[in-house]
Design brief:
Layout: E1 2-7, H1 14-28, E2 35-39, H2 43-51, E3 59-63, E4 69-74, H3 80-87
Length: 89
């Protein structure tokens, strides 16, 4: 399972997103290789948002290790338990 987070690092959402990710890693023992952040204004961020039809930010995307889409959330951050429920499938 991989968790991908798209957000603007220099925005009003940045602190909340970074705090969410820090807590997610600590509470659920997420390996750094399974958690990736992307600047939504970067070339890779724009491409990823386009591929998964993400229109609002911040966005969290969960995929299987092979890249298969599982679930994504846009706008408001979901509960950590909700994100983790898709990583256990």
């Amino acid at each position: 399972m991989k968790i991908l987070v798209l957000y603007r690092p220099n925005s009003e959402h940045a602190r909340g997103v970074e705090s969410f990710l820090h807590d997610l890693q600590k509470q659920h023992y997420i390996q750094p290789r399974n958690l990736k952040t992307l600047n939504m204004d970067s070339r890779e961020g724009i491409s990823t948002a386009s591929i998964y039809d993400i229109m609002a930010f911040p966005a969290i995307l969960v995929t299987a290790d092979n890249g298969q889409y599982m679930k994504h959330w846009e706008g408001n951050l979901p509960l950590m338990s909700e994100v983790m429920s898709y990583t256990l499938v």
